[in-house]
Specification:
single chain, alpha/beta, TIM Barrel, nine-stranded mixed sheet, 24% strand, magnesium, 7-CO-7-deazaguanine_synth-like, metal-binding, iron
């Protein structure tokens, strides 16, 4: 990659854009809300059950002008969700500044493993055991969404809940391929520990992106 291009990526003026699309937010607090998703390529957290592994290699996704991404986004929705991959691998400052200048709501879905950059109206923290979040992301998270793949993930969820701020909303979400087996366990756990809520990937039930 040319040095000039890499320099623009490092500054956040270009971002490795995997895809962008207008749909219904399927998970967490804003489920059911129309939103424009910006999926940024690049992730080294490495969840074996990840359903967008094609996002991991940033080199496969074209460096795209941030201004162009914003121009596309503002045509569709007031709510913009930046996801990945792991978007915080890149500097989100320019992207979010430009989105806010257009009067748009900025949401991010992140593992929290990298430095928090950008201006966010909503931070969905989905921590992973392989690479834990930074203290700054714990402190600023609006919702904590722990993916439950096996019973040990309940222990992990409680560890993570102890690190976020007191106003953070707590969600347990079944990993999609294990949902039939794990949902009953989540239901029982939430009923016994009502500080938690159940999150489902409702977009998959609705058969939308």
């Amino acid at each position: 990659m040319k040095k000039e291009v890499q320099s623009l990526i490092d500054k956040g003026e270009l971002l490795p854009l995997m895809e962008e699309f207008y749909t219904i937010q399927g998970e967490g607090y804003y489920k059911g809300t129309a939103a424009y998703f910006i999926r940024i390529g690049g992730c080294d957290v490495g969840c074996h059950w990840c359903d967008v592994k094609e996002s991991w290699n940033a080199d496969l996704h074209p460096p795209t002008e941030t201004a162009k991404i914003v121009e596309n986004a503002k045509k569709y929705s007031d709510t913009i969700v930046v996801t990945g991959g792991e978007p915080l691998m890149w500097d989100m400052s320019i992207l979010t500044t430009q989105l806010k200048e257009e009067g748009l709501q900025t949401h991010i879905e992140t593992s929290g493993a990298y430095k928090l950059t950008g201006i966010w109206d909503w931070i969905c923290l989905s921590p992973k055991k392989m690479k834990l979040p930074t203290e700054e992301v714990y402190n600023n998270a609006d919702e904590l969404k722990v993916i439950v793949y096996n019973k040990d993930d309940f222990r992990f969820a409680e560890e993570q809940a102890a690190k976020v701020n007191k106003d953070c909303i707590l969600y347990l979400q079944p990993e999609w391929s294990k949902r039939d087996k794990i949902v009953p366990n989540i239901v029982d756990y939430v009923m016994a520990n009502p500080k938690w809520k159940v999150s489902l990937q409702t977009h998959k039930y609705l058969n939308i992106p």
